[in-house]
Amino acid sequence: MKILLSGDRFMTNEILKEAVETVFGDESNEFEYVTHTGNWPVEPIDKNDEVCEFCGCDSDLVPLVKDVDVILTHTGCITKAVIDAAKKLKVLGVGRGGPVNINVAACSAKNVPVVYAPGRNSSAVAEFTIGMMIAHTRNIVSCHDSFFNHKKWRGDMYAFEYISNELGESTIGLVGFGAIGSKVTKILNAFGSRVLVYDPYIKEEDRAKHQCEFVSLETLFAEADIISLHARYSKETEKMIGKEQIALMKESAVLINTARGELVDYDALYDALKNNKIRGAALDVFEGEPPTDDSLLFSLDNVIACTHLAGASVQAAKIGALRAAEGIYSVIKGKKPMYCTNCEVIK
Question: What is the C-alpha to C-alpha distance for residues 318 and 36, in angstroms, rounded to an integer?
């Protein structure tokens, strides 16, 4: 069996191959590998009319797939041209939470199952989210910046006017309660926080299983000291956090976004931050990545920001590759994979 490993600088080809060898065991000794490496995350992700959040060019992959049985990738640009060129393709695996860089319709037309790895970085993002909460509310970033970049001792940051509540005495609002939101809740429960959740898709019988309060979006924004976004991006959730929702926030509240930039109307958010209508924001995702040089973001001193870093951990890379490889194994062995976006093509 011939496999194309299309890794990148995060989920490397070595990690992808190790996952295949772990799942297939001794059978993998007979496999032939073809490799391609994208430059993400050093090079930003891209989108076109077919797929999004990919890196590289599909024309680089087309010559490599002519006789492969399996494609295993992370951010490869898998368009219809790639699928059409892969005449022997039996299954395609992508080591990420959603196969947005795959033309799934083209795969379905060729009866090629697409397996993926939901929740692969949920623990990484949950930990990072808590870190952002503490970093902002406890002035860690601004104090560090003053100390190292300006050689200034900010003793004044101990003054009452600069300090904030501990997490254990705070009300935290989570928008979205999937794999990440539920893990954030468990960590916050350990702190002793009051946790509010908005997620209309959680069934009533499942709500009692968690130590949190399910409320309306309006109640969450009005009562939370910290609001953290964990919803998936879709047409329905695009700019779901806008001027109306932000206006409900306390002046002392902080908004955290480690999900997707498209969830927020950033013009409305920046206006609120600039005019001190809310205390601040901690952002790992933006309206465009990277933001343009003239973005209002760079004029704000009440924002801490990272470069879409929340999901970056050794475990996230290895779990993503392993789950995708497990899905490939199931298809090859005639079994139903756990995570498949087009299972209807499996006979």
Answer: 18
289: annotated active-site residue: yes
Beta strands in the chain (DSSP E): 2-7, 32-37, 46-47, 52-54, 70-73, 91-94, 114-115, 171-175, 194-198, 213-214, 226-229, 254-257, 280-283, 303-305
Report the share of the chain in percent with pLDDT over 70: 100
CA distance 204 to 207: 5
Which of 120, 308, 323, 326 is catalytic? The answer is: 308
- In the chain, the domains with their CATH numbers are 2-118+313-345 (3.40.50.720), 122-305 (3.40.50.720)
- CA-based nearest residue to 102, from 119, 120, 86: 86
Who contacts 60 (Cβ-Cβ below 8 Å, separation ≥6)? 36
**Catalytic residue flag (residue 154):** no
138 is catalytic: no
Distance, in Å, from the CA atom of 317 to the CA atom of 283, rounded to the nearest integer, reads 22
Count Cβ neighbours within 10 Å for each residue of 315-332 and write b for 16 or more, e otherwise: ebbbbbbbbbbbbbbbbb
- For residues 318 and 290, give the distance between their C-alpha atoms in angstroms, rounded to a whole number: 26
Q: What is the pLDDT of residue 288?
A: 86
pLDDT digits (tens, 9 = 90+) for 233-277: 889 999 999 999 999 999 999 999 999 999 999 999 999 999 999
Mind giving me the DSSP string for 242-278?
-HHHHTTS-TT-EEEE-S-GGGB-HHHHHHHHHTTSS
CA nearest neighbour of 4 among 121, 96, 90, 110: 90
* Amino acid present at 126: A
Q: Between the CA of residue 144 and those of 133, 211, 331, what are the distances in Å? A: 16, 34, 51
Residues paired with residue 5 on neighbouring β-strands, in sequence order: 35, 72
The pLDDT of residue 289 is 87
Write down the catalytic residue from 36, 96, 194, 260. 260
Tell me the CA end-to-end span of the chain in Å, nearest whole number: 20
Closest CA to 244 of 261, 228, 275, 221: 221
